[in-house]
Amino acid sequence: MDELLQWLIQNPDVIAQLVGAAGTIGAALIVGVAGTFITRRFQKERDLQDRESQWRSHAVELSRLELERKLGLLELDRELGKLSADYERPQQSILDFLACYRDLQELGEKSPRELYQDIQRDRIRPPASGESAKVVEGSGVSMGVPEAVRPTTADQHTAS
Predict the structure, then answer these.
(1) pTM assigned to the model
(2) Which stretches in the chain have pLDDT values below 70?
């Protein structure tokens, strides 16, 4: 070991080369770590934009399906002659879109179970007096429908 130190002292150009190599390795490590941190930050931003793009496309599709369902119910009520003068127009599709988009954003932060429980607890109101629950076949969705629009028992048997 002493011989190595003596030899290094006698050859200062070797020491300079070793210091230069160590500096290059140190600089590469610093650049690599800094690059990783910067890349992670931009990757998170891009992932968030991709997720939001998917949320928008899913919300549009869910809103389209909801509109088709509402129009189908409206057409059924027209055919049955159950529409009254005080019948409320279906909710505007933009409101459905915003509700779906909000739910999808929350799904990014909550589990599906937690989101379902929140929707059941906070956003679904029971039918008011004078309304009954009308279950849309196959969807598991119940809607409050004014009695003037609600089909009678005889209508339900003829529709089946």
Answers:
(1) 0.48
(2) 83-91, 126-160
